[in-house]
Specification:
Largest sheet: 2 strands, antiparallel
Strand content: under 5%
Structural class: mainly alpha
Order of helices and strands: HEEHHHHHH
Number of helices: 7
Shape: rod-shaped
Helix content: 55-70%
Length: 340
């Protein structure tokens, strides 16, 4: 037995006796159809009408304002900007230029090492740079030895201080050798005090030389590295331009030659600027180096001489001359009130 299919209210459309839709349901049908279709079809500007079964026009969609709806919105073609900046494309272009520049520089360096490529050399400037690098190695060696001396002197001073305390304790407990232990205690304490003074002078010398070597000279060498990189770029683009000029000159090569000429000029200006910067820094570095090392070498000599001569006043005067203040042992430790 066949089952009767369920009725759908949306499929029941009342018609008149001549086959036309009733007017009371026309608007309802249009509204339901509008809600069931996608928004992009723009049903706010579309109306659907029905005709009789005997009419040749069935299911015609008429363009026009929907009855009782809002006024149609004006629309037009979407106009795009002439040049839309794309961050991804800009980064890609920068990466491309960087890769091309890296390739040219690598090729130039390999050609120089193999003896096939030519390089631009400033003989006077290159000699100054070589001297600076050699001096830096020697100053680093002096700095290392001075640090070793400071460590050994600190251990000796610490031992002398402990030895003086031990002699002082024995002078109080040994009545027969009270004076002898007392003399030795005073001597070791005086040596420890003078050693601390000398240690202050040596540490000041180390700090000044360290600033000169690892900051001032290092900053100049950083500029030298930038200069050398600019020199390689300049030679790489100079070689490209020379190769293009040796080839044929026609309609296809002239734009490449012109572009290569522009890039060559840009890197030439960069190279000239970096060479001038290095020359200026080397000049100021030499003046500063002479001034700093002169003062520090005088300090080091006078302090060492006064210490081994046992001239305590001369040793203290040397520190005052260079405005060196010694740190009192335990001065940095907080007081018992601050710890509470």
């Amino acid at each position: 037995m066949a089952q009767e299919s369920p009725k759908n209210s949306a499929a029941e459309i009342p018609v008149t006796s001549n086959g036309q839709l009733e007017d009371s349901h026309e608007h309802s049908f249009n509204r339901d159809l509008k809600c069931s279709l996608p928004v992009g079809l723009g049903l706010s500007e579309t109306r659907i009408t029905s005709h009789g079964f005997d009419s040749t026009k069935e299911g015609i969609v008429e363009a026009g304002p929907f009855p009782g709806g809002r006024a149609p919105q004006k629309s037009g073609p979407v106009v795009l900007a002439d040049e839309v900046k794309n961050p991804a494309m800009e980064k890609l272009e920068l990466v491309r230029k960087w890769s091309l520049n890296t390739y040219k520089c690598t090729r130039q360096i390999i050609s120089e090492k193999l003896g096939r490529g030519s390089r631009t050399v400033d003989l006077e400037l290159e000699a100054q740079i070589d001297i600076l690098r050699d001096n830096k190695k020697k100053y680093e060696n002096i700095l290392k030895l001075a640090q070793t001396l400071s460590t050994q002197l600190f251990q000796m001073v610490h031992t002398q201080r402990q030895l003086g305390d031990a002699f002082a304790d024995l002078s109080l407990k040994s009545l027969e050798l009270h004076e002898e232990f007392g003399y030795n205690a005073d001597t070791q304490k005086l040596l420890a005090k003078n050693g601390e003074t000398l240690l202050g002078a040596i540490n000041f010398f180390i700090a000044s030389v360290n600033t000169l070597v690892n900051k001032t000279i290092e900053d100049t060498l950083l500029t030298v590295k930038q200069y050398e990189s600019a020199r390689v770029e300049y030679d790489a683009y100079r070689t490209d331009l020379e190769e293009l000029n040796l080839g044929p000159r026609d309609a296809s090569t002239l734009p490449k030659i012109e572009q290569s000429q522009q890039l060559f000029q840009v890197h030439k200006e960069k190279y000239d600027k970096m060479r001038n910067d290095v020359s200026i820094k080397l000049k100021f570095l030499e003046e500063n180096k002479v001034k700093v090392l002169h003062n520090q070498l005088v300090l080091f000599h006078n302090a060492i001489a006064a210490y081994f001569a046992g001239n305590q006043k001369q040793l203290e005067q040397t520190l005052k001359q260079f405005h060196i203040k010694l740190k009192t042992p335990g001065a940095d430790a907080p007081s018992w009130l601050e710890e509470q």
